[in-house]
Design goal:
By secondary structure, this protein is mainly α. The protein has a domain of 90 residues: Glycerol uptake facilitator protein, CATH 1.20.1080. The chain has 7 helices and no strands. Helix 2 packs antiparallel against helix 3 and helix 2 runs parallel beside helix 5. The longest helix is centred in the N-terminal third of the chain and has 24 residues. It holds the Pfam family MIP. One of its GO terms (cellular component) is membrane.
C-alpha cells in the first residue's frame, strides 16, 4: 500500500509544482520546464537508463547497506545527481524520475518522448538495485572490515 501512495504523492507534487510555475510565469514553447529529448529518442532513452542505474546503485550503497559510511551518504547521492546532470542534461534533460517529467507534460500538454522518461528510469533503477544486491559479497559490517566506526574521526586525526 505504501508504494502506490508514494507514486501518487510524487505525481501530485509534480503536477502541483508545474501548475504553480505555469501560473507564476509566462511559459513559452522555448522556455518549457519539462524534459525533452534533444537528439534521437533512442539516445535519450539509453542515457536515462544509464544515469538512473548509477543513481540507484549509489543510493543502494549508501542508504541500504549497513556497511556504508552514513555521514557521507548525502554527499555521495548529491554528487551522483550532479554528475548525471552534467553528462546527460544536454542530451535528455537528465530526468531520472518519471514524476519529474510527467507533471510538466500534463500541465503544458507536451508529450514528445514522454515514454523515454517513464520507461528509462524504471529500467535503470530496477537494474541498479538488482546489480548492487548481486555484488554484495559479505554481510560483515564495515566496522569489522575497516576496524573503524566512522570515516570522519579517522580523517581528522591525520
Amino acid at each position: 500500500m505504501q508504494v502506490p501512495m508514494y507514486i501518487a504523492a510524487q505525481l501530485m507534487g509534480s503536477i502541483l509544482a508545474s501548475g504553480t510555475l505555469a501560473l507564476m510565469f509566462k511559459i513559452t514553447k522555448e522556455a518549457y520546464f519539462g524534459t525533452l529529448p534533444v537528439e534521437s529518442h533512442l539516445q535519450s532513452f539509453a542515457i536515462e537508463i544509464v544515469i538512473s542505474f548509477l543513481l540507484m546503485f549509489v543510493i543502494s550503497g549508501v542508504s541500504t547497506d549497513n556497511r556504508a559510511i552514513g555521514e557521507l551518504a548525502g554527499l555521495a547521492v548529491g554528487m551522483t545527481i550532479m554528475l548525471n546532470v552534467f553528462v546527460a542534461g544536454p542530451i535528455s534533460g537528465a530526468s531520472m524520475n518519471p514524476a519529474r517529467s510527467i507533471g510538466p507534460a500534463i500541465v503544458k500538454h507536451v508529450y514528445k518522448g514522454l515514454w523515454i522518461y517513464i520507461v528509462g528510469p524504471l529500467i535503470g533503477t530496477i537494474a541498479g538495485a538488482f546489480c548492487y544486491n548481486l555484488i554484495r559479497f559479505t554481510d560483515k559490517p564495515l566496522r569489522e572490515i575497516t576496524k573503524t566506526s566512522s570515516f570522519l574521526p579517522s580523517a581528522s586525526k591525520n
